[in-house]
Amino acid sequence: MYPSLRFYATAAPLCVLLALTACSKRTDAYPQPAVVARWTIDGQERTSILARAETNFDKVNVYIYQNSMGPNSSGTQVAVSLSLPKSIGTYAIGTNSQTQATFIDLGTSTGPNGEPYTAETGSVTISTLTATSVSGTFTLTGRGYLNKQLTKTVTNGKFTATL
Q: From the CA atom positions of the chain, what is the Rg in Å?
């Protein structure tokens, strides 16, 4: 009793279909969130999936967070805060500037709260500003808020934040 050719003709395509659906190349059950910001600090590229912005009167405030479990976090947390005029353009950070920035890298700091840095030089560029989002670039050099001898530089910064 041999199965008929008709049985094989019907069963073969079903087996192939079943085998192809079982061989998924996807390695995770959930898609990765989009990266909304990236920068380099201490020679190490960092990325963030968390950024938000708000406007008030003539200012835009951008807040970027990298939690310790995010991509390229190296197990540390970083927060960057930018405050600048609400208009497309490039703004210098310096004495008497309308543009301000602070950042904290909890991976290289001492103490429970880390060392916050206040940017003394650098620039922030707003390249896109709509009713719902803001995007741009930044470069910052900051001095330690508690320990004035410490300096840290953030380069190659890029962000897109929801308003």
A: 24
In a domain, 17, yes or no: no
d(CA 11, CA 35): 45
Q: Is residue 147 part of a domain?
A: yes
Range of the domain at 150: 33-162
- Distances, alpha carbon 129 to alpha carbons 5, 55, 97, 125, in Å: 67, 11, 20, 11
Span 52-72, pLDDT tens digits:
999 999 999 999 988 755 555
In a domain, 10, yes or no: no
In-domain check, residue 66: yes
pLDDT tens figures, 108-128: 544 445 789 999 999 999 999
